[in-house]
Amino acid sequence: MSYSPHTAADRERMLAAIGVGSVDDLFADIPAAVRATRFELPPPLAEQEVRAELARLAGRNRIPSVSFLGAGVYRHLVPSVVSEVIGRAEFSTSYTPYQPEVSQGTLQSIYEFQSLICELTGMEVATASHYDGATATAEAALMACRLTRRHRVAVSTAVNPQVRRVLATYCAGPAIEIVEVAADIVEGGTGLTSPAAAAGTLSDDCACLIVQQPNMFGGIEPMAELADAAHDTGALMVAVVEPTSLALLAAPDSYGADIVAAEGQPLGIPASYGGPYVGLMAARMESVRQMPGRLVGATRDGQGRKGYVLTLQAREQHIRREKAASNICTNQALIALAAATFLSAVGPEGLRELADLSAIQTRHVASTIETAGLGERRFSAPYFAEVAIRIPDASRRHAALAEQGIVAGYLLERDYPELADTLLLAATELTTDADIDALVERLGATR
Amino acid sequence: MSAIERSVSGDASGRAAAFTSPEAGEALTIVEPLIFSASRPGRRAVRYPLPSSAARAAASDQPAIPEAAARASAPRLPEVAELDLLRHFNRLSHLNHAIELGFYPLGSCTMKYNPKVNEWAARLPGLADSHPLDPDPLAQGSLELEWLLAELLKEISGFAAISLQPAAGAHGELTGLLMARAYHRARGEGEQRTKVLVPDSSHGTNPATATMVGYTAVTIPSNPRGGIDLDSLRAALGPDTAALMITNPSTLGIFEDQIDQVIAAVQGAGAIAYMDGANLNAILGRFRPGEAGFDVMHFNLHKTFSTPHGGGGPGAGPVGVSERLAAFLPAPLPLLVAGDPEDVRRNAWAGRTTPGARFALEEAGVRPTSIGKVRAFTGNFGMFVRAYTYIRSNGGDGLREVSNDAVLAANYLRVRLADAFDLPYDRICKHEVVFSGRRQKREHGVSTLDIAKAILDHRIHPPTIYFPLIVEEALMIEPTETESLETLDAFVEIMHGIAEQASDDPDALRRAPVTTPVGRLDEAAAARRPDLRHEFD
After folding, report:
1. pTM (2 decimals)?
2. Do B100 and A120 make contact, defined as CB atoms within 8 angstroms?
3. Is ipTM over 0.90?
């Protein structure tokens, strides 16, 4: 039944105090014409029964024994300490810190999160979180439009297709036009976004150029040159980054990014069939009043104690209503806490080790496949921890391997019709040499 | 300055906040140092294995990261030992109030108990490790759970179809208005319908969402009974109306007893009737918005369906729609592609898998009328697991009991507190009740902000304050169904005590809180001189 503690005696006492005969009297103001005529739900379950049901559903999933699937969600270790911290009831069963005096745990942890994202990206200010990387990117585009007062955004086709679809949905409302910069994915291409192509697409009414680093194919984009191409037309540069790559790749501020958006899932968040994840956003202080989302700031109380509060709330819906920068209210606070705990737990050395391992194992699998004559890299450019490999008859072979519990990456033809017979393989610090051997052996067996 | 702005600047009573400017170089007392202060070069919590020499050798024939793209210097992330890391976060957690420490009657948020079996379920590796892009044959459990949850939400709400995609209530609102927009465009009325009507009691996300979708928000006044004023609504409705967004029960905790006429008027004008489902905890088993004729509604899984609030998320805001909007739902939907839906439901309710049943994600492009994606993948799946576990634990009888007890508890507080505080709408409420602190303000200069701060010293969380905007010095109390009668009675005593203090010792209330880790904070200074990140020396 429900988790209500009320006994029959409790209910009688409350009804007597209220002065009605039955609880139905409290619903008498619902017009008869609209009362529910049915409510046919399954019967209640005791804990052991509901556990069995959830175990049944969990058992219907086949978690692969070997997986090289990335494409925006990466299998990384979730350190025990991260699970421990977000499991604390004081963090998980509290809510938005509207009463800061009893919410310093949440507020300070968000301030630390903001600080860590600034440090990782090199930017001056970071928000308390967004729903995911895709919505953070869409919000960044809208922010760029507000800042420049322009109504068009340019986006590379090498940006994750899920992100681009969300961008399109968000831009439809305020009638913001999207123009695509075609990445070089023709035969023998680099797999990158060329600054010349960007310059060719940008016009002086583009609010921003959106580029992903590393891009959808794992390729390392020429971010400084792309930022220049954007700035040359007065457009802002929106960099969509993978956070673990920032251990090895240049921080966005160093190449002139104006707004940074990212999917924080790789920072100690389980794959969990698509969510909850956490969207990251960072920018320069001069843009802060156009930033959507919550911000936590430091201040003091009347007794000289340092404290933290939600601040610059005049941007937000509960103050400005129809004039708010965004409608966001509930965000992903507990997941942001997980990411902050993760970054604090791994430190700069750990993050570098994780990134190194991921990059080496990705190169390792690409090399082994090429050496075995099973396929070759589709694009010529250097890559970080994901690589596009051309394999004949990829679709059939991918399905055959999936049957055996091996997921051979992502079939790029699902989003890029011109990239048939191409697998996008991602390796992480969890990818063992044995995994690579198994993949190559099984791929060979499906020739 | 609006009431809300005054309240957040600590200036609700109209007097300047009592903060002296910090002197140059003044050292503040630190309650808990930032994580960076435990950092020493060389400390680590998590380590990773090294690449094997075979791996390095194989990798060496692949292109390296170009020098020009490499990071110049390492990020200054904390270098801490695992024990110090845990101590830091444990001590931070001790600075929070939470549902699992004490009463949390934050109106409009439904701070009910978050069952632990839900957490057990969400952590099952079979669910937690499921990758959203795994081939459908490997994700039958995830897909079935999403499908079953949608079926349950349909039955609860009476809607024809569900999308689980939106990540929060506001995100569901965005989804709903985008679908309304698509609906009107499909009928050639996209250009003419530019306005979204919202009651003056609406949550701020409603008009903010209207703006995000390119609409103009128009405010409709409430009537003296606390419902939307039907005459004003009818006057405002026209061929330029895209939608009405209405919360029911309203943000005053009052059921819109003319809701059938409201829906008829809106749809008669060719507009979409949107229900903000934040207050669903009041009406489970009593009122099904889809059955009553609404076109679209968002659910808040982190309110009605017990998923934890997390200090500000993650939530989930699925939407239900009527037949005429179903074509516009976000894509992809989880579909049952083989098997009889009746069999699958019947078996699942009995804890069985249906042989031969197969699920798949809707293929890209098969439903071109869809508004597209409002987020990557299919939604906050971890919250679906929790909500599904909650609904199955409760069953239909349990959910009916949820609303019965939520409404009982709120009305109990209404009658027990009506002598101490003004009740602007003196009638039966649903799951929450809105008082006004205006008597205390006028007679003793004690604001609702002062009352809230005084409540903090009693180890409970205050109700929502200064919302809805149409009530002066609003105090919105939502006990939920999971609080015992002793807890409710203790709250009544505390509130009576504070009402007495307002006349006997108002200064004590204005100094509150005095027992919390920090006192009232200088929010004006925080906004004037933003300090939003740690600065390294």
Report:
1. 0.96
2. no
3. yes
